[in-house]
Amino acid sequence: MSNVILQAQGVTKRFGNLVAVNSVDFTVKEFEVVGILGSNGAGKTTFFNLLTGLFFPDEGVITYRGVDITKMSAQDRVEKGLTRTFQLTSTFDNLTVTDNLLLVYFRKNHASSIKDLLLTTRKSHYQNPKILDILATFNLEDVKDKLVQHLSLGEKRRLEIAMAVLAEPRVLLLDEPLAGLAESEIKGVLDVLRQHIGKQTIILVEHKISHIENFVERLIVMHEGRVIAEGGYEECLNHPEVRRSYWQIESEDGVENA
What we know:
Order of helices and strands: EEEHEEHEHHHHHEHEEEHH
Largest sheet: 6 strands, mixed
Strand content: 15-25%
Shape: globular
Number of strands: 10
Oligomer: single chain
Distance between the termini: 44 Å
Number of helices: 10
CATH class: Alpha Beta
Helix content: 25-40%
Structural class: alpha/beta
CATH topology: Rossmann fold
């Protein structure tokens, strides 16, 4: 499987007597779009934290592009191209949308010049083609001069994802990117993410499963720290263990367990 970009083998994480992630195997191919689904307490966020280096597993191995990153720091994973949005996109609320994007651009391309950018020269870069392109792609042109603290939740979410994309990661990990958004904002976020299918590997945790039906190529369903189903959207949602554990449907006739 030469096009595998990220893999977890037998990964386990314990917190005292609680086994939050229990011997999970997980493989993602380059440019694949994968959703991780599960109820609260299923272990999906802990597993996400293991993939991104916020936690280290007690057992198992995580590899990225064939290299063992099990004990690699979160920052080193970002530098390698494995980015979870908030690892890079802690926005500066007292700066404009454009200035936040410029910070990411300079961190990626001119790290030693960030101080100069903040203090003296940033306005000279406002017409940078990459900045203009990312503003257009993520529908942020109308708010480009707005302070981030005055953005709506949907606008800020688009900015955060735009900042992560601008950093050009190979793998973009999104933890509930649609949380708290209105229906119109959800459509906007998914529309811009679709433009990056085939350009980046995308892994997302999401509760609003109906919205990602036509977005993800594959689902992973977790329950009590284990992967209980994996495959296509319909295949996973109709899996007997998913029906029992996630939907709380016990019988084959579809009667819900109260």
